[in-house]
Amino acid sequence: AEIVVLPGDGIGPEVTAAAVEVLHAVASAYGHRFNFHEHLIGGAAIDTTGEALPQSTLDACRTADAVLLGAVGGPRWSDPKAAVRPEQGLLALRKALALYANLRPVKPHPAALGASPIKPHLLNGVDLVVVRELTGGIYFGRKQRASDSASDLCEYSVGEVERVVRRAGQLARQRRGHLTSVDKANVLETSRLWREVATRVVADEFPDVTLEHQLVDSMAMHLLSRPREYDVIVTENMFGDILTDEASMLAGSMGLLPSASLGDGKAGLYEPIHGSAPDIAGRGIANPVAAILSAAMLLRHSLGLDDEADCVEQAVSQALDAGAFTADIQGGGAAIGTRAATAAVLENLQ
Amino acid sequence: AEIVVLPGDGIGPEVTAAAVEVLHAVASAYGHRFNFHEHLIGGAAIDTTGEALPQSTLDACRTADAVLLGAVGGPRWSDPKAAVRPEQGLLALRKALALYANLRPVKPHPAALGASPIKPHLLNGVDLVVVRELTGGIYFGRKQRASDSASDLCEYSVGEVERVVRRAGQLARQRRGHLTSVDKANVLETSRLWREVATRVVADEFPDVTLEHQLVDSMAMHLLSRPREYDVIVTENMFGDILTDEASMLAGSMGLLPSASLGDGKAGLYEPIHGSAPDIAGRGIANPVAAILSAAMLLRHSLGLDDEADCVEQAVSQALDAGAFTADIQGGGAAIGTRAATAAVLENLQ
Ligand SMILES: CC(C)[C@H](C(=O)O)[C@@H](O)C(=O)O
Ligand SMILES: CC(C)[C@H](C(=O)O)[C@@H](O)C(=O)O
């Protein structure tokens, strides 16, 4: 399999290196051949080429079986007046590959509950996946800037809502059969469209799935007060961005959470939900787990290697059980670094 | 003083009745004269007049010293295809009175920490106010609906951002001098405008206030992991809607949280941040505290009666200390109803 690796900025290179190491180990354990092709994106690409998503990177991603990304962005490139921003590279890549469904599973690990701000008794048994629409909404609508005003257009077509709800319905069917659609239908026209389409798609195509609608503000509460009740949550781009960062607190740290961005083909983009964390970049202390679990999602969703994916997830779980904690999840006491955390996963592999 | 009361829907009438009782008690204790004028809004207004905000209601609000509102909305009126929705009444009122700054204080009460999903040690000392922009953004931009698509326009002018940031700066100056401005400047044009204007207004007019910028997704995490670090948080309409519902979980229940919506004049609109809670309406079990604390904010911000406001807030605090808990904050055991909870506050008044 041909895997494009986009280390990006900040801690991106450190955590993708860890994930690639794990993929190498999987390849040799199971007798696969993975070829890795590293390309530039984000700030690193801007520095070298002036563009956040060079054509050569996009071309490589288009022909790859899967793409593994670290993170993009950082204060060096975040002058609001800058002509090119690292984030544009990531957004353009999602759009160009039509990766409309961003899966963000949240399953707090028992050993890491101490790191969560949420009371542990609420977290037992939490196992949810947010399916965030990733190529539409206010992220991609027309933006305008005048001297004394600015605007962003939030737009959704029926087709855009259908396909992401369908993907979420399929996932719900494979899981506990419960789907929660999140919108702001009491205020937004796009949300009213969203609600109508979600209702129709589930009624027509997923009669075995139960659908519940939640307003985004209520959801921001219920995610904390009764997280166990959710199975699959589907929502539009901006709400998904906010709710998944919030949901990461259930797991204790963003450093633990992977994501898969999928389109209609097999190829997908896999990345931690955390950012480039410029404050800790280069110090060897970043948590590699989110990137390693993203690699597991890559094995599962793009390469169809379910056993191998299970094996990586189990190794991570065992490493956490054994207390292999980086600083983000270690309360007091000594935390280990990125290399040691990666080694702990490798040790438990198979 | 002339006070318009808009009970609205669901539990609205129950909780505004409690707040009015408390205001009556304040009036007689301090020798004030408050005249209450009840008017229709929301679903109740739709049922009677066909409109969510009848002209007579708006006229009354325009000439009042302050408006006390319960809540609007409910399943009866929430058919997505309905021509008029209760929420439109509230949105139209906010807009017509130019109440651009919505203050939502969050200060968890020690006695109610058990009700919060957040670990208690993170909550000690939390005392923040969200200043939510209330008359702009995606709530009020042009909405369009075609057969196969929909759109909502998010717009902000420099003046709209300036005035709300200024209000937040004034508040920060009276408090701990720390202001956090929340946006999504790495994606949205309106957020880049927001960030520029916030930076300039604080630099020019509030050199004594420290300003920090946060992306909305990060804020959704930090609000949970380090709530103590925030003093005043200012943000646009939609982000404020989501973040304040999330922040309500710090206090344990929305039933405890008041809000004040202010414009340039003294008149303001005061309402609990909770909704109409149709599931518990009419059962006499709603928590009246949010409405009572909204009345305290009314005394402070519209009537300039700071001592009286302090007195109400203290009475609420003492009632909670004494364990006067409605069902939303009572873990196990017997909860009291709306009347008993109101009586507990009245008992502690002065
Ligand atoms: C970096 C940024 C553009 C991105 C987003 O908002 O989608 C990030 O926050 C994410 O969630 O992947
Ligand atoms: C009822 C609804 C329109 C309203 C809003 O979104 O502003 C409510 O959620 C609030 O926060 O006051």
Automatic annotation (TrEMBL), chains A, B:
Binding site for Mg(2+): D217, D241, D245
Pathway(s): Amino-acid biosynthesis; L-leucine biosynthesis; L-leucine from 3-methyl-2-oxobutanoate: step 3/4
Positions annotated to bind substrate: R94, R104, R132, D217
Cofactor remark from the record: Binds 1 Mg(2+) or Mn(2+) ion per subunit.
Reactions accelerated catalytically: (2R,3S)-3-isopropylmalate + NAD(+) = 4-methyl-2-oxopentanoate + CO2 + NADH
Principal cellular location given in the protein's record: cytoplasm
Subcellular localization, as worded in the UniProt entry: Cytoplasm
Enzyme Commission no: 1.1.1.85
Important for catalysis (site feature) positions: Y139, K184
Top-level EC class: oxidoreductase
Single GO MF descriptor: 3-isopropylmalate dehydrogenase activity
Top-level taxon in the UniProt lineage: Bacteria
Keyword Amino-acid biosynthesis in record: yes
Cofactor dependence: Mn(2+); Mg(2+)
Pfam families documented for this protein: Iso_dh
Annotated residues for binding of NAD(+): 74-87, 275-287
Domain Isopropylmalate dehydrogenase-like, first and last residues per copy: 2-345
Keywords from the UniProt entry: Amino-acid biosynthesis, Branched-chain amino acid biosynthesis, Cytoplasm, Leucine biosynthesis, Magnesium, Manganese, Metal-binding, NAD, Oxidoreductase
Subunit structure: Homodimer.
Similarity section: Belongs to the isocitrate and isopropylmalate dehydrogenases family. LeuB type 1 subfamily.
Record function comment: Catalyzes the oxidation of 3-carboxy-2-hydroxy-4-methylpentanoate (3-isopropylmalate) to 3-carboxy-4-methyl-2-oxopentanoate. The product decarboxylates to 4-methyl-2 oxopentanoate.
Name of the molecule in the record: 3-isopropylmalate dehydrogenase
Species whose genome carries this gene: Novilysobacter avium
Gene that specifies this protein: leuB
